Amino acid sequence: MALDLIKRQYRTLQTISGPLIFVDRMKGGSLGEMCVVDLPEGERRTGQVLQLMGERAVIQVLEGTSGIDSEASSVLPTGETAKVGVSMDLFGRVLNGFGEPIDGLPPIVPDEYKEINGLPMNPAAREKPDFFVQTGISAIDGLNTLVRGQKLPIFSGAGLPAKELALQIVRQARVAEAEEFAVILGAMGITSRESFFFRRSLEETGALERTIAFINQVNDPTIERLFTPRIALTVAEYLAFERGFHVMVVLTDMTSYCESLREIGSAREEIPGRRSYPGYMYTDLATLYERAGRLKGGKGSVTLMPILTMPDDDITHPIPDLTGYITEGQIVLSRALHRKGIYPPIDVLPCLSRLMNLGIGAGKTRDGHRTIADQLYSAYARGIDVRRLVTIVGEEGLSDLDRRYLAFSDEFERRFVGQGREDRSIDETLDLGIELLNTVPEREAVARRR
């Protein structure tokens, strides 16, 4: 084996571009194969084969290419793909984007190693989502219910409290008491301050015991951001399909992930697609999002909530646009509500959960859930229309009915949406919805009595 490795060591490094190195006359390599990059000073770094063009290989160096001498460095293919060690001992641990512990605790001894480049589920093997996941957020649980096995993204804007909302969901999410539940947090491109905030909050609230956190900071290698969601989902699949857990995976921020894709694509001199993002970004995102779901005959499930920042609050930007095509709805944060001091600032009107009806009703949430949600949507939408009318005719020109809907919309935003850090059960959410509906005329909301 040693002689074989010596024969395969290449000192034909030709070009360095960003996090990539280009190696000529590399025979027998394969896509995704891991390599060892030996530097003259004895330092070793890890790389992965991204592309093969004849006998030229494009290798991404995980620790960055700073200090690599193209004439004195060598590349050693290992013959293995990227893997992560999985174990039940991962619970309560904080790791970096490569799956290495950064919490100062002893190293983890894995039960086995799993390849991180998993495949999307076979549609024929998928089980229909059947039960809701309670997040404790009324605007989600009541109006855009998250269902086991669903992929439901959160669309945010720069400066909006998306990370605070992600942490609140990680802290509050739960399923039926008799079932095993776990949360995996994959944070990409966050600052040191945000990393400290995540870790301290998880420890103080006790949520860390059922949580596995993978944290990639903004000063970490760009390549690490491409590994973080894959490693998080690999661990989730292990817990769900081999250990029977219901796993919620929260990935924030997918915009940082896509920016890393663009950076790597530029270094590879690829022809850019929309707004200079790679043309294969849709496919790449689908390989992540489609790993969520349930398998027929299996007990566990993987539920995915990716969070992304919309550049310039543009929901038609390629990142939210492509994400919306792949996933099953969206939760949209509102800058206008945020300016009013409402938290979480969820704008319920453009929000959607396409699988909501599969996870609500008698025996799941409560009988009449769909009717209450429809009435709340209808009354709030009419109140927003009246609010726009006020800007034209003033409140003096409103009828008594319009005034009541205007008051309803204000109360709905203040009490139902703006719950702060409160953790609400589904019953508390629906009871509050009925209480608010009682403020509009009886003939306008007869369905709430059913």
Q: What do these coordinates show?
A:
With 450 residues, the chain is of the alpha/beta class. The chain folds into three domains: 2-81, Thrombin, subunit H (Beta Barrel), CATH 2.40.10.170; 84-357, 3-Layer(aba) Sandwich (Rossmann fold), CATH 3.40.50.12240; 369-449, no CATH class. The protein is built from twelve helices and 17 strands. The strands form three sheets. Strands 8, 10, 11, 12, 13, 14, 15, 16 and 17 form a nine-stranded mixed β-sheet that branches. Helix 5 (222-241) packs across helix 6 (254-267) and helix 11 packs antiparallel against helix 12.
- What order do the helices and strands follow? HEEEEEEEEEHEHEHEHEHHEEHEHEHHH
Strand content: 15-25%
**Helix segment tally:** 12
- Identify low-pLDDT runs: 1-7, 446-450
For the record, what CATH class of the largest domain applies? Alpha Beta
CATH architecture of the largest domain: 3-Layer(aba) Sandwich
The number of domains: 3
C-alpha geometry: elongated
The number of E-state strands comes to 17
CATH fold-level label of the largest domain: Rossmann fold
Termini separation:
73 Å
Q: What is the chains' assembly state?
A: single chain
Structural class: alpha/beta
Provide mean pLDDT, rounded: 88
Report the radius of gyration as a whole number of Å. 25 Å
Helix content: 25-40%
Main sheet makeup? 9 strands, mixed
